[in-house]
């Protein structure tokens, strides 16, 4: 299949283009400069696999949780392609994407993104069973849910930070984390094509990012009301 995928949930932007068996992935670990890079990065990735946007079968995007700014940028980019060329968009949970690479390891998987304020956006699953759904979880709640687990995979951009927090409270648990960052944008292809094979629809026109927490502006506004 011919596709474009974008992981824009955190400051490390990843873009992949796929033309059947040819895949090109670019990684931009450039902090908050995503807005300056995302459009030319898309054009560059498609050019590398000899594709134009009109030839795409689908696009795949992280819906969140993650950075408010990054998620809005990514979804705006793929929706522009959808409107211009009628290319369906498949939105995927950021945490599902991070956990995907470890789904066949026969161990519980905790996918996590640091949400600050002693909280993590996290999802905990064991094989096909969801123990903690996508949520904005206090670290105390995460520690409580993994208390009886003997061996655990922790993944996501802040895996090692959360690993240290859990082990500080539970010395008996064995935690495995990736040694290097995972090329997450390529995982989106597999997840999206599984959705397509099951005839699951893409996102609707009015669908937007998955925010598990109000923005700082909304918090301030609500506190004044």
Summary, kept brief:
This protein has 225 residues and is an alpha/beta fold. It has helices spanning 34-48, 68-85, 94-100, 139-145, 159-169, 184-197, 216-224, and strands at residues 2-7, 12-19, 22-29, 58-64, 89-93, 109-116, 119-126, 129-138, 151-155, 174-176. The strands form two sheets. A five-stranded mixed β-sheet has the order 3-2-1-4-5, sandwiched between helices. The chain has a five-stranded mixed β-sheet with strand order 8-7-6-9-10.
Task: Please provide a written account of the structure.
The protein has 225 residues and is of the alpha/beta class. 36% of the residues lie in helices and 30% in strands. It contains seven helices and ten strands. The chain has helices at residues 34-48, 68-85, 94-100, 139-145, 159-169, 184-197, 216-224; strands at 2-7, 12-19, 22-29, 58-64, 89-93, 109-116, 119-126, 129-138, 151-155, 174-176. The strands form two sheets. Strands 3-2-1-4-5 form a five-stranded mixed β-sheet, with helices on both faces. The chain has a five-stranded mixed β-sheet with strand order 8-7-6-9-10. Helix 1 (34-48) packs across helix 2 (68-85). The longest helix has 18 residues, at 68-85. The chain is elongated and about 55 Å long. The termini are far apart.
């Amino acid at each position: 299949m011919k596709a474009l995928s974008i992981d824009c949930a955190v400051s490390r932007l990843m873009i992949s283009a796929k033309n059947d068996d040819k895949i090109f992935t670019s990684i931009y670990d450039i902090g908050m400069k995503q807005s300056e890079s995302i459009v030319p990065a898309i054009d560059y990735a498609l050019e590398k696999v000899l594709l134009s946007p009109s030839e795409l079968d689908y696009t795949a995007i992280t819906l969140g949780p993650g950075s408010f700014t990054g998620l809005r940028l990514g979804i705006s980019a793929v929706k522009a392609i959808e409107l211009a060329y009628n290319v369906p968009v498949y939105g995927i949970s950021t945490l599902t994407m991070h956990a995907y690479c470890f789904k066949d390891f026969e161990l519980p998987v905790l996918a996590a993104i640091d949400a600050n304020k002693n909280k993590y956006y996290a999802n905990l699953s064991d094989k096909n069973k969801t123990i903690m759904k996508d949520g904005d979880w206090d670290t105390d709640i995460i520690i409580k849910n993994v208390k009886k687990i003997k061996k655990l995979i922790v993944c996501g951009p802040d895996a090692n930070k959360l690993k240290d927090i859990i082990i500080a409270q539970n010395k008996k648990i064995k935690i495995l984390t990736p040694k290097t960052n995972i090329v997450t944008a390529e995982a989106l292809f597999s997840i999206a094509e599984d959705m397509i094979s099951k005839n699951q629809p893409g996102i609707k026109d009015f669908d937007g990012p998955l925010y598990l927490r109000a923005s700082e502006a909304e918090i301030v506004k609500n506190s004044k009301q």
